[in-house]
Amino acid sequence: MIAKPRALALSLALALAASVSFTPSALAAPLSEVWDLKPIFASDADWDAARQAVQADLPKLQALKGTLGKNAASLRAGLDRLSQAAQAWEKVQVYAYLQQSTDNRKAEFQQRAGLVGQLGGQYAAAVAWVDPEIQALGAAKVQAFIKAEPGLKKHAERLRNVLRRAPHTLSAESEAAIAALAPIRGATGDVRTLLVNADMRWPEIVVDGKTERVDDTRYGLLRQHPDRAVRKQVFDKFFGALGQYESTFGVTLANTVQDGTVMARLRKQPSAVGASVGQEEVPEAVYRTLVAEVHKGLPTLHRYFKLRQKMLGLPDLHYYDIYPALVEQKKTYSLDEAARLTFEATQPLGPDYQRLLKAALGANTMHAKPAEGKSGGAYQWGVYGKTPYVFLNHQDDFESVSTFAHEWGHGIHTALVNEGQPYETANYALFVAEIASTANELLLSQHMQRQAKTKEEKLYQLGYALERLRGTFFRQAMFGEFELQTHDAAARGEALNGKRFTELYCKLLKQYHGDAEGVMKIDPAYCQEWAFIPHFYRPFYVYQYATSITAALHFAERVQADPSGASAKVFLDTLRLGSSVPPYEALKRAGLDMASPAPYQTLVAKMNSIMDEMEVLLAAK
């Protein structure tokens, strides 16, 4: 689900220049299931040499201190040098973390990731003087330098952002100290990752005559089982295992929350959430409007749960009844089928998008199948100038197809950015990143609805679409509200621990799912779910899934309704902006204001229209 920016090669786009159009059958098959990291570094020894080179370069970066303000040429030379260093550092970082994701048990992978963590803090400390020095120059002098030196144009947006953050930037010495503490400040997330993926002893159960380990990877599939007794057993075992470590998870998350709260106070920010969203110039009103509109939409969510209970033929509804398909589908989807369906579904985005997708799928840059020790989830990452790397845990079900489309949405977003942006602005904010990926999911869903040959297939796809809207809009907004509450509690000086997190989460879980209204029963043991959510260690990230599916629906509906291609061009041009324009402003230019209630109300209306269609199909003989 997570896009890690700067992931795709400029050479990828250039290699496609001779192509005009493709058909799904033109896709290379079979796709590789294990990635090749040699395009980044030919060997581990080369990686280590590059790491040492980055280490040796740090004093040289520090030696630039005091030179940026001499004249326009000095500022350009210094920023160019810092960009070169950043690219070298990113390669070292990405290689190590891609490796570790494939097997968290391997000591050598852990060692490389550990070295990168240490180097990251040292690197950040070595360049911590840069922002304060630029801010000391003042806006007038910086603007005069930009006007006098054309080579500063590619750095202009960074300079604007640095000056914008001046009221919240500390002294160079303080910034260096904070940067040096980065590995320690981020250690809580690392502890959680290793606990879940390497150290915890996950329970096993027998499902359909086969022994299954109920870990954080298999849980996602097992919770969809059609047998209610199996689902209950899965939930009991999984959340029971998490509950045994409630105190440990509580300490790690409490430290993450305290870190954000303390940093906001040190930087004279009004709140942790304001500090977080303000980094990307997203108004806090976007976050607050989302939560408010989600609360207004809870009757629609409860309508969905009642429809789910009816379709599953259940006397009541429990939390473990939320994931099985409303209509059973036994069809499986290979990795190659996922690629074909994604290619077909994204045709409305036009030939440029299709060319980029075909080239990316032809590279050996996916790690596709689950394995013991492998991290859960999915992401896309890579380095500037290389093909993107996509990390999956493909389970051969339709959700895996949707995840495939999602992650390659991130990949092609990066390709589009790299076509028109230099390295300095070939990044993109998280606020926009998930729009590109989620739009692919929506296009895939609607493509599958059109392809449905029977009433059952259509109901399955409509039900899947409904569940996707629930999971990405309502569920992620609930996570976002949990983060608001935990950080507000920390700001009040309240002691936070595992038990308190469980209490806060349980209250929200019951409110969102209609426990008091008799819509769904929330069993107390399942209130441990907060410990399962890794995004909480990256505070105020998850709300962007909810805003992104809202924006993605806006664009997907327009693209499909406009055969001229004009709407697709608006969408892709918005993605191409990278970090050259603030993300909220980029969407406003495309006609979408995410601080207004209207986009969220449109999504809730879409859910109601899907349920209307399903009820008509169910009533038909």
Summary of the model, kept short:
The protein contains 26 helices and 6 strands. The chain is globular and about 80 Å long. This is Oligoendopeptidase F family protein.
Present the secondary structure layout.
Blueprint: E1 2-3, H1 10-15, H2 44-63, H3 72-102, H4 107-126, H5 130-137, H6 139-148, H7 156-164, H8 172-180, H9 182-185, H10 187-199, E2 204-207, E3 210-213, H11 219-222, H12 228-243, H13 246-266, H14 272-278, H15 284-296, H16 298-312, H17 335-345, H18 351-361, E4 366-367, E5 379-381, E6 389-391, H19 398-420, H20 430-451, H21 455-491, H22 498-513, H23 543-560, H24 566-576, H25 583-589, H26 598-619
Parallel strand pairs: 1-5, 4-6
Antiparallel strand pairs: 2-3, 5-6
Helix pairs in contact: 2-3, 2-4, 3-4, 4-8, 10-13, 13-21, 13-22, 15-21, 16-26, 17-19, 17-20, 18-19, 19-20, 19-24, 20-21, 20-23, 21-22, 21-23, 21-26, 23-24, 23-26
What report would you give on this structure?
- This protein is mainly α and 621 residues long.
- It has a domain at 2-36 and 330-461 and 542-619: Orthogonal Bundle (Neurolysin, domain 3).
- The chain is 62% helix and 3% strand.
- The chain has 26 helices and six strands.
- It has helices at residues 10-15, 44-63, 72-102, 107-126, 130-137, 139-148, 156-164, 172-180, 182-185, 187-199, 219-222, 228-243, 246-266, 272-278, 284-296, 298-312, 335-345, 351-361, 398-420, 430-451, 455-491, 498-513, 543-560, 566-576, 583-589, 598-619; strands at residues 2-3, 204-207, 210-213, 366-367, 379-381, 389-391.
- A four-stranded mixed sheet has the order 1-5-6-4, sandwiched between helices. Strands 2-3 form a two-stranded antiparallel ribbon.
- Helix 3 (72-102) packs antiparallel against helix 4, helix 17 (335-345) crosses helix 19 and helix 21 crosses helix 22.
- The longest helix has 37 residues, at 455-491.
- The radius of gyration is 24 Å and the shape is globular.
- The two termini are 39 Å apart.
- The model is unreliable at 5-25 (pLDDT under 50).
